[in-house]
Amino acid sequence: MRYLILFIALLSSGCAIFQVDDGSLEHSMAAAIERGDYRQAHDYYSQMSEQARRKKSVRNQSARLHRELESIREKTQKESRNAIAIGDWKKAIDLYRKHEYLIEIDKEFEKNYREFNARHGAASKQLQTQLLVVTAKYLVEATRLQRDNVRVSPYSSTYKWQLWELEREAKGIADELIAGGELAIKENDISTARKLIPLAHQLGKSTKTATLTRKLEDLIKPISNYVDDLMQKANHYYSDERYEEALALWDEILEFDPNNQDIQAQRQRTITVLDSLKRIEHENERRQ
Q: In angstroms, rounded to a whole number, what is the distance separating the alpha carbons of residues 17 and 23?
């Protein structure tokens, strides 16, 4: 009990035995930077007094730390963009995960990480939409053919059961298309709405699909402004070396204006760049 009271007294008096002096923190910070432990270096700097941070030697160490963080940030951003350009999302994700700890100490890295996650989410959403569309198109055709089978062989219980299975699956996909179409209209995502709503109507006409079709028609009226915005974004992505995103937008514009030769040329130019990047990546992999 006597030792416990003494311990509490020492704590309450701010005894110096539990404090680390600024000189030790500066030395530890420099050592952490040397071994590449930038998070620890940042922690040491955070513990220093304001007076110590004003020292020239500490300011030099702080500047060095920021340069190292900037180098990592720029390298991660560049390499992840190159990986995305050739469709290697795993590599891009791993690059950011490797330095995920920097989010807490580097605001710019945090911003880049948020932008990367947004791009990844958009790419994932786009692929899910494409998968849904492919499935829906298959079911439209498969259901039509199976109905013909039943008409040709009206006493085949197997054909009837297969048609029932297809129609049941088609209803589930139609519900997903309707939900996706409603969300697309709410977000003014005309391209996605144009893909989903007509397919939902083909799989199963209903009041919902009819209502969504009318809403889609109202959205398409001012389409020229929308296409102009897409073209600006596509050019911006291309200039920013975000070639896959630019290609996706060129494809989207061609859905509205399939005979536009300028857009077709832009699309082909983007594909050429992507192919070149893939060849470079493969050559680098062979050399390693």
A: 15
**Residues 65 and 79 reside in one and the same domain:** yes
- The neighbour count for residue 110, using CB atoms within 10 Å, is 14
Distance of CA 100 to the CA centre of its chain: 16
Question: Of 133-137, 141-145, 173-177, 239-243, which range is least confident?
Answer: 239-243
Instruction: Inform me whether the pLDDT recorded for 2 exceeds 60.
Output: no
Residue 97 · residue 85 · CB < 8 Å: no
> How much is the pLDDT for 32?
92
Distances in whole angstroms, Cα of residue 165 to Cα of each of 135, 168, 210: 14, 5, 25
pTM of the model: 0.61
Expressed as residue numbers, the domain containing 247 is 222-276
> DSSP readout, 7-67?
HHHHHHTT-GGG---HHHHHHHHHHHHHTT-HHHHHHHHHHS-HHHHTSHHHHHHHHHHHH
